[in-house]
Design brief:
heterodimer, A: 691 residues, alpha+beta, Four Helix Bundle (Hemerythrin (Met), subunit A), Alpha-Beta Plaits, six-stranded mixed beta sheet, five-stranded mixed beta sheet, 22 helices, 22 strands, 46% helix, B: 151 residues, mainly beta, OB fold (Dihydrolipoamide Acetyltransferase, E2P), 3 helices, 11 strands, 11% helix, 48% strand
Chain lengths: 691, 151
């Protein structure tokens, strides 16, 4: 059967499970005895194995299978988790990720067998499990489930039902049945490996058998089979009046069944042996119960904790088209509002009321659609703890990542893009920011370096800060480097503020790391970060103190599609300026303008603010005469302020941002366009590009 | 056989005029033809970009082929139209034309390919010349003319 149609879902879910594994491994490293974590890992590994098997990824399946085996032992307390094991697990995880990546790129898992990992895992099994009663020891290939393989199968390979341990109740039942002249058969059923709905097939087999007899016991348990918690085979003991051939035929009548092995069970009732068996059985039952309980617990968990939200996966394109429709609606609403406010138009109060009603509905609708597009940044940042852990080993520096605000939400498109820049910044902090343990000790800092990733919302922006308590940026070193590179001259350097110098770091191919490591330091980092963030209409800021650490602050707009804007007129043309960047509006007398370095500035309540005449920037004649008072919009970008001179103010409006398309080589100061209520187009000014 | 069939396969072109010269635009690229409307100027862009228009809620750039081909600037008259062209990338652009004349159907045999001439910039805009009863039609090479963007 063709499984490619499931590939997407498979990849999605595999990634989720790998992420969960990674998270749980991190916890496991801290608390090796955390039973919840161990169970969670077992469950993820098991599901992964099942999915990989269904999709036919043998190597992926084999590796997860062995990992699962190890955890099955850990769960039974026969193996202890130690740091070497966690390391191994992370290696396994990397290998699994590699498989997944290969599958994503080529739909093939690749040819790396990762034998050393499998061997290492099996070593754990062999060493750890030897002392214990070794349930499910190296059965490696098949059904690890709850079936203890203590019985030395006389008839190896296929007739697995012989491995089924019978409790005394079952024995009693069987004994009774034999007395009544019924027969007891062991049945092992093999489902075709290409079968997708294994559980359904198994169910049909059960049903067929129940028609002719009674199922006493099955391995795995009926519940597990129903939940598809089995490989490609399952076994059971049945009591029936029919003969072996009929039983076999009944099973094989179900489609997609590869083979069935039926044999008569010898019912043992001898007293002497029973004690031994009971003892053994008890042990098994315990283990079994343990497993059952664990399963039951896991199953209850999602119900109890609302961690897993009920969700529907929606194609982002559908959301985009919904968003576009909402945009159209808002434009239509704006046009109604503008019509109604025109003089001579209807002054009917009901008309106005209806318009207000429409306005509130569209606003709410817009908000809801926007919310649908919002996703927590968690999906991006959750991979970072592992990355920092890896970096810590690689760089041989001790460091911990503290994260907060993972629940902060951003537009989907932004979240998808933000991962790389954040990763760059974190690597940068780990590699360049933090000093080596030795240096830290000498400086009287705690040996363990700290990196913080904090996200929070601030007004219409989301702020993400990457902070470290490392060395900070050495401004003099940057300066020297910049001069050596010819980026600036020595004279220029003299006149530059520390802030400007640090800004040089964001120039392409600028790295201050003395050595190039494979972590970062090739000089392709910060400029990429900056351009990426700016393409998302955000900005990056750095604060640093030599010896104490540095903070990179990323500021991103909450939404990209619809904003509140101030509409202005310059030279008869209409422009929109995002309200988010506007500080105040000022009315300035021309006599208040002063000149500093041949540039116009105003002194506003003690702050000197440079003036930017928008008509000059936009190549158009101002409609105002020079002696008239100036309308100045004070905008800010980080700590910088500037006054934009405009001709007219037209008021505040909710605008829908439209792209100008790729065809226009637009200047940076135009970030897009919007359609006004009367159908006219107004361009949106990006004040950040002006400052 | 195939060659002969190809000869008689036909393509429809919308014939537009710049001054006295006739140009043909393959109809499969034409999304729409609209009357002249208010064009919003966009500062600091390519000189041949006239600005943007609002076409049913979409913002579409409008360019002047006259300026792009090095002719004199468009004079807006009653006959001026904006042809909305849908590029292969899916993006729409508007092109100012002096006048839209008619739709013609040309057999492939009636199209004479022109050789690429690096000396004549205008030759790069056309892929062939169509012969028709009213004279010659320069056939615009849509991907060559509009796809690549220049500074």
């Amino acid at each position: 059967m063709d499984v490619t149609q499931y590939l997407e879902i498979f990849l999605d879910e595999t990634k989720e499970h790998l992420q969960s594994l990674s998270d749980q491994f991190m916890i496991l490293e801290q608390e090796p005895d955390n039973m919840d974590t161990i169970n969670e890992i077992f469950r993820s590994a098991h599901t992964l194995k099942g999915m990989a098997g269904t999709m036919g990824y043998k190597r992926l399946q084999a590796l997860t299978h062995d990992m699962e085996n190890v955890f099955s032992e850990v769960r039974n307390n026969t193996i202890k988790v130690d740091s070497a094991m966690v390391d191994l697990l992370f290696q396994v995880l990397d290998a699994l990720e590699e498989y997944t990546e290969n599958i994503q790129n080529t739909t093939e898992e690749g040819t790396n067998d990762n034998e050393h990992l499998i061997k290492a895992l099996n070593d754990y099994l062999a060493n750890g499990g030897s002392g214990a009663p070794a349930p499910a020891a190296p059965v490696a290939e098949e059904a690890p489930a709850a079936a203890p393989a203590a019985a030395q199968a006389e008839d190896p390979a296929k007739e697995k039902w012989r491995d089924i341990k019978l409790g005394d109740t079952e024995n009693a039942v069987l004994g009774e049945a034999v007395k009544q002249g019924k027969k007891c058969f062991g049945v092992s059923v093999y489902v075709q490996e290409s079968c997708i709905l294994k559980a359904a097939r198994a169910f049909l087999v059960f049903k067929a058998l129940e028609d002719i007899g009674e199922i006493i016991v099955s391995v795995p348990s009926a519940q597990d089979i129903e939940d598809e918690r089995f490989e490609f085979d399952f076994s059971m003991i049945i009591i029936t009046e029919a003969d072996a051939e009929t039983v076999k035929k009944a099973v094989l009548d179900v489609s997609e069944i590869e083979a069935a092995y039926v044999g008569e069970v010898e019912v043992k009732v001898p007293e002497a042996k029973e004690e031994v068996q009971v003892a053994q059985v008890e042990e098994t039952v315990k283990a079994d119960n343990g497993a059952q309980n664990a399963v039951a617990k896991q199953e209850k968990k999602p119900a109890g904790k609302p961690i897993v939200n009920r969700t529907v996966r929606v194609d982002i394109e559908k959301l985009d088209s919904l968003m576009n429709l909402v945009s159209e609606l808002i434009i239509a609403k704006n046009s109604l509002v503008s019509t109604s406010s025109q003089e001579g138009m209807l002054t009917d109060t009901t008309f106005n009321e209806q318009i207000e009603y429409l306005e509130s509905v569209t606003t709410n609708l817009h908000e809801s659609v926007m919310k649908v597009r919002m996703v927590p940044i968690e999906s991006v940042v959750q991979k970072f703890p592992k990355m920092i852990r890896d970096l810590s080993k690689k760089l041989d520096k001790k460091m911990t990542l503290y994260m907060s605000g993972e629940e902060t939400e951003l537009d989907r498109t932004v979240v998808d893009e933000i991962g790389d820049p954040l990763m760059h910044l974190l690597r940068n902090s780990a590699d360049h920011g933090l000093e080596s343990s030795q240096v830290r000790k000498e400086r009287g800092k705690p040996e363990m370096g700290s990196i913080f990733l904090d996200a929070y919302q601030e007004g219409n922006n989301v702020i993400i800060e990457v902070r470290d308590d490392g060395n900070g940026i050495d401004v003099e070193a940057v300066k020297a480097k910049a001069i050596a590179r010819g980026a600036i001259t020595a004279e220029q350097a003299e006149n530059m503020s520390d802030k400007d110098i640090i800004g040089l770091l964001f120039l392409p191919s600028f790295s201050t790391a003395k050595q190039v490591t494979d972590v970062s330091g090739r000089g392709v980092g910060l400029d990429v970060v900056k351009s990426k963030i700016e393409s998302l209409s955000g900005e990056v800021d750095v604060r640093t103190k030599l010896g104490e650490g540095s903070t990179f602050i990323i500021r991103l707009p909450l939404t990209l599609a619809i904003i509140q804007a101030l509409m202005v007129e310059v030279g008869g043309e209409k422009y929109a300026i995002s309200l988010g960047s506007i500080q105040t509006l000022e009315d300035i007398d021309p006599s208040e303008i002063e000149h500093v370095q041949a540039k116009e500035v105003i002194n506003l309540r003690g702050t000197v603010i440079p003036l930017i005449r928008l008509n000059e920037v936009l190549d158009i004649e101002s409609t105002k005469s020079p002696d008239e008072n100036l309308l100045v919009i004070i905008v800010k970008k980080g700590d910088k302020l500037a006054g934009l001179v405009v001709d007219e103010l037209m008021g505040q409006q909710e605008i829908v941002i439209k792209s100008l398309g790729k065809y226009i080589n637009k200047s940076k100061i135009i970030s897009g366009a919007t359609i006004l209520g009367d159908g006219e187009i107004a361009l949106i000014l990006d004040t950040n590009a002006l400052l | 056989m195939n060659e002969i069939r190809e000869q008689y396969e036909t393509t429809q072109f919308i014939v537009v005029k710049y001054g006295d010269e006739q140009f043909g635009v393959d109809i499969k690229y034409v999304d729409n033809i609209v009357r002249m409307q208010r064009i919003t100027r966009v500062p600091k862009v390519q000189t041949y970009i006239k600005g943007v228009i609002n076409l049913r809620g979409e913002v579409i750039p409008v360019l002047s082929l006259r300026l792009k081909m090095g002719l004199e600037d468009d004079t807006i008259t009653k006959a001026t139209r904006i042809i909305i062209i849908k590029l292969e990338s899916g993006e729409c652009i508007g092109v100012l034309v002096d006048e839209v004349k008619e739709v013609v159907t040309l057999e492939n045999g009636a199209i004479e390919k022109v050789a690429y001439d690096s000396k004549d910039p205008r030759a790069n805009f056309i892929f062939g010349v169509g012969k028709e009863k009213d004279g010659l039609i320069s056939l615009l090479d849509i991907s060559g003319t509009f796809a690549e963007k220049e500074a």
